[in-house]
Here is the input.
Amino acid sequence: MSLNRLRNMFEKKEGAVGTFFSGGNMSFMECLGFSGLDFVIIDCEHGPFDTETMMDLIRAAELRGLVPMVRIANVDHKEIQRAADCGAQGIIVPCLRDVPDFRRLVDLAKFTPLGNRGFIKGRGAGFGCADWADTKSLEEYFENSNDRLIVMPQCETREALENIEEIAAIPGIDGIFIGPFDLSTAMGIAGRFDLPEFKAAEKRVFEACRAAGKICYTFSTSAEKTAAYLKEGYDGVACSQDYIIFTEAYRALNADIRSRLK
Here is the structure.
């Protein structure tokens, strides 16, 4: 059994549901944990979070049973190292283009023999005291760490799409996260998700993951579409974002109140 619950769900063919988190704080993260979602993506690409805040959000997610994933800004040693060391159990990486970019991601995010991540037993490993980190050998620690951290770059550029079969097969790439808005924009059909060419692009990514035995996640904006993706066989879906759902909920509440006053 894997040290990462999302891997276990993948093996059991249980679709995972999560959301992006970019507008809240630790208390909001705890509240989200009571929702029954499986994972949360702490957005350090578009969100305002510094390293310490990201770490505290990871703690809050763990406290309430959410698998904490972090979307970093790019393939950068500091970006990757801080997320992994602070306890992210998944790293989402945007905007990659060339195959060497994806290989460099693995090199920085995975310990040997898959990569060359710098050694530490930091906060994410319980400072070496977590059961899985308190090992007899460094080799065992490296293996456990590599299992625990899901490396899931996004496919959202033409270059990535054109090379997706080779990318999905790279050892150390655990899965692909489809970024529909940026991918459709890169294809010149921004937001037109119902067009045959976009559906073909989604299918190509999905099938590349299946052929390589890798995880395939995507993003949706509604419960209806999320359920449809899961029924199609996607392994996980991040549905909407915290600040969007927050705003929509209060809009609906306010509208309901006002309607009752008429």
About this structure: Strands lie at 16-21, 39-43, 67-71, 90-93, 150-155, 175-178, 215-220, 236-241. The mean pLDDT is 97.
